[in-house]
Amino acid sequence: QLLESGGGLVQAGDSLRLSCSASGRIFSSFVVGWFRQVPGKEREFVAIRRWSGNSPKYADSVKGRSTISLGSGNKFYLEMNSLKPDDTAVYYCAAGPVYSVIPSDYKHWGQGTQVTVSS
Fold it and tell me: In what order do the strands lie in the sheet with 16-22?
């Protein structure tokens, strides 16, 4: 089970760090990632990386201003800088065995955390 935290209302240009905690073990072969969704649109890839090793991959829309990283225990993070109103969405963390940017390839999901960026 995954649980996100760290969302909220921020101003354009601000930074934000989202956290994801896994209640169970994340296998070393797994991939973890962040996705986001706005009403009426499909869930989209933001960032992924391998749990062991690195190999981060970022969506073009966040590349250069976002970092996906691991923490102690079964935690991982998404730090976003220079936030824009277009970043407003519900952000979900995910984990699964496939290195993929396709949401349906992920087996485990958090419940989502709202990020709202005001202009």
Answer: 2-5, 16-22, 75-80, 66-70
The answer to whether residues 7 and 111 touch, using CB atoms and an 8 Å cutoff, is no
- Catalogue the long-range contacts made by 61-66 (C-beta closer than 8 Å, 24 or more residues apart): 61/86, 62/87
Other C-beta atoms closer than 10 Å to the C-beta of 23 total 8
pLDDT at 113 over 90: yes
Contact 22, 72 (CB under 8 A): no
- Residue closest to 32 by CA, chosen among 107, 87, 89, 90: 107
pLDDT at residue 117 in the model = 98
pLDDT in tens, 92-101: 999 999 999 9
Q: What is the CA radius of gyration of the chain?
A: 13
pLDDT tens by residue, 37-87:
999 999 999 999 999 987 899 999 999 999 999 998 899 999 999 999 999
Burial class (CB in 10 A: 0-12, 13-18, 19+), 30: buried
CA distances from 63 to 59, 67, 96, 105 (A): 6, 8, 22, 22
